[in-house]
Design a protein that fits this description.
By secondary structure, this protein is α/β, with parallel strands linked by helices. It has a single domain, classed as 3-Layer(aba) Sandwich (Rossmann fold). The protein has helices at residues 3-6, 17-29, 49-60, 77-84, 100-116; strands at 9-13, 33-34, 40-44, 69-74, 90-91. The protein has a five-stranded parallel sheet with strand order 2-1-3-4-5.
């Protein structure tokens, strides 16, 4: 696998199988691969925010995930920010006029920034 292809590997953490499948298809159509040892992880932060925020912090310290870039999603950005002070989170509501495409764009931007840095 080329270095460029390796840097386009993405993992998805989300509790909704329908969203995971739709996002996986959209990412693969966009030239990304979804598998283990990802360069980028899409992680959904559901309620209760404090518990999932703490779990996210633990995941980010896990050996193989430390080097990954993270795109965080939620369905209630204001409530998440109020609960844990999170910022830079992509708000998605699957099935609304926005969602999968917004996340794919966030992935492109995050990986582009990573490749430049």
């Amino acid at each position: 696998m080329s270095e460029f292809a390796e840097k386009r590997r993405v993992a998805i953490f989300n509790s909704r199988p329908d969203f995971i499948e739709a996002l996986r298809v959209a990412l693969e159509e966009g030239g990304f691969t979804t598998n283990h040892k990802p360069a980028l992880i899409i992680y959904d932060l559901p309620r209760p925010y404090e518990r999932h925020w703490n779990f996210l912090k633990l995941l980010k310290e896990t050996g193989s995930l430390k080097a990954a870039t993270w795109v965080l999603t939620t369905t209630d950005k204001k409530a998440l920010e109020a609960a844990v002070g999170a910022s830079g989170v992509v708000e998605i509501i699957f099935g609304e006029p926005y969602g999968v495409a917004d996340v794919v764009e966030a992935v492109r931007k995050a990986l582009s920034t990573r490749l430049k840095g």
